[in-house]
From TrEMBL:
<protein>
    <submittedName>
        <fullName>RES family NAD+ phosphorylase</fullName>
    </submittedName>
</protein>
<dbReference type="Pfam" id="PF08808">
    <property type="entry name" value="RES"/>
</dbReference>
<feature type="domain" description="RES">
    <location>
        <begin position="74"/>
        <end position="204"/>
    </location>
</feature>
<dbReference type="InterPro" id="IPR014914">
    <property type="entry name" value="RES_dom"/>
</dbReference>
Amino acid sequence: MKSSKVTSRTHRIIASRYPTIGVFEDIAENEDELRVAFELEAMTNGRLQPYRRLAALPEGGVVTGPTASIAMAAFLHCSDSGGRFNTSRLGAWYAALDQRTAIAETVYHNERRLRMSDAGFPNRIQLRELVVNVDMRCLDLRGVDDPVLYDKDDYAGSQLFALNHRWPFSEKPVDALVYDSVRRDGGENICIFRPTAVPLPIEQGEHFEYVWDAAGELTVLKLTNVDFP
């Protein structure tokens, strides 16, 4: 496997219900203050897993500044089952190298969750796009013929692979990897493992609404501003 320079505008799509600014973004001026603020919140918050993930970040691994809370949320508030290249131990920043792939990735995961529920359809979800311009070296998995890394449903093998390579757990860690999308032919994704490697500030992109009818058929809408009055 090779290392490649990736220079690209990247696209990450998240649910609009998530806040754009963290509660500590304006009051924690440095990493030490941010860690103390999280510890204080943990004393009165039953959701301790994000703070255990914070402890997994070594000194110098916490990003601060404008929009830093958006970046940190990807690492601290990940799924309990993890993602393709991360376990529940610590999240990662996933994004696509083009907008259509970002939509395809999020449609798949949201639709899968809805289909597991008896009351999944009809449904609608509003989402917003986060845009980051990356210019960094990545472990390049594009074109690698490995069914374990690219299994459509089982992430156990790809998670183990990443654990042996990713910052901060590997002896020779990589900050990021770039890989082919499983959800859209020709699409490419990036997975950034180090919070401080996510370029700031993160830009607000477009807004979307995913609408499923009673039969589970999907329509993707782009929400635009209205010049009013």
